[in-house]
Amino acid sequence: MKIEYVYFIVPLIAIGIVPQFDFLFPSIDTDSARNMISTLVQSEAAIMAIVVSLSLVAVQLAASVYSIRIIKIFKRMSLYWFLIYYYSLSMGYGLWVIIGIRKADLGSDVLAFLRADIYLSYFLGAYAFILLAIYIRNVLDLLDLTKILGILSKDVTKEGILSVKRSGDMNDPLKPIVDIIISSMNRFDEGAVEEGLSLIEEIIIKLLDDHNFNDMEQKKLSTILFPHMEIIFNLALNKRDESICDKLVNVIESLGKKSAERHCIIAYESAQFLGRVGKKAAEIEDPLFDDIIINIVLALTSIGDKAAIRNSETVADTSLSLLGSIAEIAKDRPKIIEIIDKGQSSIGNARENGTIQKAGCEASPAIRPYGQ
User: Fold this and answer.
1) CA dihedral in degrees (250, 253, 258, 260; nearest 10)?
2) Same-domain status, 185 and 213
3) Do 90 and 205 have their domain in common?
4) What is the pTM of this model?
5) Residue among 151, 131, 142, 141 nearest 50 (CA)
């Protein structure tokens, strides 16, 4: 059971129990009760104004630092809306009790009749302060990047991805995470960028593990995911941020290798992405980019090797072709050319091994009867 449900249930239990055991509560002075409840109502009104102000400040801060799209997190925060409704009902109930006290005769019978209402009003007022402390803690948690990313990751589902018309539209569940990554890059917060990229990697791999994507669905996922990745890479390239470029390349490499097992279209699109960014980086004649290009070449080789072993000829051929395209642009960089040559040889050897394994598997059923 979610912890939020406990917050909702407690006042309901109190409303049901307190009137049944009103005889256990000591008698109370009417004037004292009226003053106490009046003070509680005024305090609740002031606190509700603080809650609304705090929420608006938190929303504005989070939206300006991370992304305007995370406002939906606050809109869906059930504790906030429960707090508003609870304070309104608690204040209304307190005012109703005060009116009852003022209209009532001060005799002992009347005090006994109002006793349960007075003590229930006390309880609701005290519980309102407890809820305030819990709410402030929740708001502070929502300003934590890890918590925000965790909440946003729950929106990234197969159905959510497939319902997106184009990458980056209002229904794109990856867009808020990408916005946070980009804003973190502009603030030079590399830790937040790496955390966001790792989350995307984790989400996509989990989707591939948990669901079967047909060819059309794989294509749809690719058209949503890779434009985001290309925007991040181009921004990192413009900022000369080698660590972010390498992290992104490693994420795509991981996706490509994982998808080569069952989802060849995503593996193909992963190789195409690495080819595009590799050629873009190679066109920049700056030795600082050599390590980025080498990392891209190694990632392409890794995907090509995995595809070749799995007998995915299209992905293996694409990786070989893209390595050749990068080599043509970087022909004046001997170190890169050497690594590309090794990569092409590695894919070729993996293809031969994959063909041999496939032939062995096909021959086994025919050979086995004679071996029995």
Assistant:
1) 180
2) yes
3) no
4) 0.76
5) 131
Domain extent for 174: 147-364
214 φ, ψ to 5°?
A: -75, 180
Same domain, 132 and 257: no
Q: Specify the DSSP element, H or E, that contains 261.
A: none
Q: Name every residue whose Cβ is closer than 8 Å to that of residue 49 and which is 6 or more positions away in sequence.
A: none
Who's near 290: CB < 8 A, 6+ residues apart? 333, 335, 336
| Tokens describing residue 120 | 């229930």
DSSP 107: S
Instruction: Give the per-residue pLDDT at 231.
Output: 92
pLDDT band at 167 (very low <50, low <70, confident <90, very high): confident
Count: domains in the chain: 2
Same domain, 64 and 172: no
Q: Is 240 left (phi over 0), alpha (psi -120 to 50) or beta?
A: left
Q: Which of 102, 127, 143 is the last residue of a domain?
A: 143
Q: Are residues 217 and 307 in the same domain?
A: yes
From CA 247, how far away is CA 243, in angstroms rounded? 6
Judgement on whether residues 13 and 105 belong to the same structural domain of the protein = yes
Three-state DSSP string of 142-209? HCCHHHHHHHHHCCCCHHHHHCCCCCCCCCCCCHHHHHHHHHHHHCCCHHHHHHHHHHHHHHHHHHHH
Alpha-carbon gap, residue 172 to 77, rounded angstroms? 20
